[in-house]
Amino acid sequence: MILLLDTTVLLDVLRSRQNRRSLLAELVAAGHTLSTAAINIGEVYAGMRQGEETKTEAFLSSLECYPITGAIARRAGSLKCTLAQKGRTLSLADMMVAATALEHGLALMTDNRKDFPLPEISFYPPLSPG
User: Fold this and answer.
1) In this predicted model, what pLDDT tens digit does every residue of 50-102 receive, in sequence order?
2) What does the DSSP 8-state code read for residue 56?
3) Alpha-helical runs (H) found in 30-69
4) Would you call 16 helix, strand, or coil by DSSP?
């Protein structure tokens, strides 16, 4: 399975929180591929602290990175517009991540599932039934 790591997960790894580094190592050992979206890399760099540059670049370079294509941008804008018409205001950045996951059939790993209220999104770990 290819996992799309959202910014929350990337920051946890870089800042050694929630044992994320070990979890991701276990997932890779189990045969999963780790990836992220170009917008997530931008978000990480926007919040990077002084002295984190080398570690950040080494980690992000180890991930498969999905670019923002025209198809992803159109889908993200469409998702944002549709949800806004239903009264849900979501960030364009989050919709770019969602569109990336949907366009490539990826499972999204995030701590902010509420930011992705789309039934067609697959999450990792999957939601428990019931």
Assistant:
1) 999 999 999 999 999 999 999 999 999 999 999 999 999 999 999 999 999 99
2) H
3) 38-46, 53-61
4) coil
pLDDT in tens, 34-45: 999 999 999 999
Average pLDDT, the chain: 95
Contact 130, 110 (CB under 8 A): no
Phi-psi label, residue 51: left if phi above 0, alpha if psi -120 to 50, beta otherwise: left
Cα(25)–Cα(30) distance, rounded to whole angstroms?
A: 9
User: How far is Cα 125 from Cα 17, in angstroms, rounded to an integer?
Assistant: 18
Cα-Cα-Cα-Cα dihedral sign, residues 9, 14, 20, 21: positive
- Reduce the DSSP state of residue 26 to 3 states and report it: helix
Helix (H, G, I), strand (E, B) or coil at 116: coil
Please choose, from the candidates 43, 36, 119, 123, the residue with its C-alpha nearest in 3D space to the C-alpha of residue 82.
119
